[in-house]
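haha ok so turns out i had the wrong file open the whole time. this is the CORRECT one, sorry everyone. sequence first:
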Amino acid sequence: MADAVRYLLDGQPRIAAGSDPTTTVLEHLRGDLRRVGTKEGCAEGDCGACTVVVGSLEGGAVVWRAVNSCIQFLPMIDGKALVTVESLSPAGALHPVQRAMVTHHASQCGYCTPGFVMSLYARAVGGAGTDASIDEVLAGNLCRCTGYGPIVAAAEATTPESAPDVGAALAGLRREAPLALSFDDALGGVVRRWFAPRTVSELARLALEHPDAVLLAGATDVGLWVTKQHRALETIIFLGNIAELKRIEHTVERLRIGAGATYSDVLPALTRLSPDLAAMVRRLGSTQVRNAGTVGGNIANGSPIGDMAPALIALGSTLHLRRGEETRDLPLEAYFLGYGRQDRRPGEFVEAVTAPRPRDGSIFKVFKLSKRFDQDISAVCGAFALTVEAGFVRAARIAFGGMAATPRRAVGCEATLLGRPWTADTVEAAAAALDDDFQPIDDLRASATYRRLAAGNLLRKVLAETSSPASATRVLDFAADA
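then structure:
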């Protein structure tokens, strides 16, 4: 087994040995390398001050991604190329992105500036997720000084450029054996271990051997366990090197998403599946988060406010699980048993999820309600899959997140709709049935009263959009643009 992290920095190989595997890339840059241009703002992947750009060799080409270094663990960049703000001006001359920021007075206190520069650099080199609008690309970078106008002007002034030519150097970092690290945490009194299998079979074996291990994909959630909750993670199995888990297969009937596929990777396929679903995903985190976070991870951790689950449940999706050589399938809604509890046995892992395509002529809507439009956790997420024929509801699958301890179907609401005319009276009766389906709670994101009212209003919104398609019901109509 290989026992040291190897990566490219400014195109040159570097070796990091002996580090705690839960050391973040940000800590490595600022502490070990004294590259202090990359800043720590929130340490939870929200503010973007720590943005770096990472390149990985995928299918013979180098794919560049802007990511939050504060929640990326150092071994996650093994075999990859790292670009920081210092990389852009090695001889002191400003990079074109940096010159644009200066020319347009896009920096005041300057603390967030390196993160903005790196997000714009990723856009300039055609990084993953940067083919969207400037506002969307920069939604994961927060600034309290400029009002964003000058930063947007700087972005508009930048032009595409060639990405670093590191393909051959990355090929030279390929290993014969998977990365495996062991670190004796004397202060914590534990030995931390990191495994990075390269096949699903290797993963299945390791998961059985270490049933209590943390399975790690994008670290957009697990990273906070370390940076905010200060958990001591003893054994981690990293899924990011398993190409099989990143497969996205779509046919005329269904879309199968490997558990390791990132949101940025799957967004084009989701757009073909449903423009509404793609519009919701564009609001799920930021570019940096979508470049790291995975659909499988969002499902596997069983969060009651994970945005993908309600949509996939409404579509009638099937979850594919594996334990050793044994596989099993179950309806996605059956996976969520209770708060923090999922139908997953020790040593079992999520391999993929399959979503049927909405039938022609059917109705499929997804709505996300949050305090901020961009990069915020949902207060309520509702998904609606309806078949209306000759004015009557013939099929209904409705699911919500944020309304219960798990993502869950609104079975009473569905039953009230079935067989009845698709009219305001029917919708009012179905909205009232939601009070029996859910007993939401008060928390920091919303009150129970708000959630109950909002859930009914989302159903009313489905009726409004289907009865009067030209009605203005959206703040930004990403679905129409998709």
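The chain has a mean pLDDT of 94.
again sry for the mixup
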